[in-house]
Amino acid sequence: MAVFISICTQKGGTGKTTLTMHMATYYHVVEKRNVIVLDADFPQHSFFNERALEIAKLRQDPELIATLQQQGRAPYEVRKVAMTDAPTLLDQLADTPDTIVFLDMPGTINIAGYDQVVRRLDYIILPMEADKLTFAAGMMTLDAFSKINRPAGKPLKSYLLWNKYKSSERQTIYESIETMAGQRPDLTILDTRVKDSVVWKNNRSTLFPYGEIKKLIAEINQKLAFNS
Ligand SMILES: Nc1ncnc2c1ncn2[C@@H]1O[C@H](COP(=O)(O)OP(=O)(O)O)[C@@H](O)[C@H]1O
Ligand SMILES: [Mg+2]
C-alpha cells in the first residue's frame, strides 16, 4: 500500500515545498523508503523545476555524480501533475507496495480537483509560523477538509508543525497558538520545531538529504505510523 501525505495549508510561503523536499529526500536516501513526489503546485511547480535544475547541475559535475552514486539510491520520481489529474493518479498509485507519496499542492484550495485529492490523503501536516494569520489559514484549511466526504474508516490525520521557529520570538505566541490548536480533537501538535534558518533553504535538495531533519523524521515515524 502507498500512503499519501501532504504538507499543506492555505497560506503561501510557510515552507510547504521546503519541508516536503527535506522529508522526501531523507525518507528516500536515508530511510531507504520508496518515495514519489507529485508536484501539483501549478503554475510554479518549484519542486519539479528544482529537480530539473539539480539534474542539470549534476551533469556538469563529476564529483556530484560520484557523491550521488555513493548514496546507492537512484533519485526518486518527481512528477508534475495537474490537480484535476491527481485523484486518478492517486488511485493508480494506491496499491504500490511500501511507498510514501508526497503531494506538493498550491496554497489555494478553491481549485478543481483539490477536494478529490484531500479525500484520498492519509496524513496532512500543517506548517505553522508564529502569527495568528498563519494559524487562521491553517484552521480554515482544516475546517474545509473536514467538510469533505471521506471513505468510511479512513479518517484524515492532521498534524501541526512549527516551521521557521524563532526562539527570540515572544514565547506566548507559540503557547497561545498551541493552546488553541490543542482544543481541536482533529489536530496533533508535533513536538519537533524546525528553526528559522537559512540552512533549511540552502540545504534543500531533491537528491541529497540534510541530516538536521532526522529528529522530525523520527517523530513522524513514531506518530504517523506508516511504517511497513
Ligand atoms: N525553516 C526555515 N527557515 C528559513 N527559511 C525557510 C524555512 N522554511 C522555508 N523557508 C523559506 O521560506 C520561503 C517559502 O518556503 P516554501 O517552501 O517555498 O513555502 P511554500 O511552499 O509554503 O510556499 C522559501 O524561501 C524557503 O526557503
Ligand atoms: Mg510551495
UniProtKB/TrEMBL annotation:
It comes from Spirosoma sordidisoli. Gene3D superfamilies: P-loop containing nucleotide triphosphate hydrolases (3.40.50.300). It comes from the Bacteria. Residues 5-181 form the CobQ/CobB/MinD/ParA nucleotide binding domain. This is ParA family protein. InterPro entries: CobQ/CobB/MinD/ParA_Nub-bd_dom, DNA_Partitioning_ATPase, P-loop_NTPase.
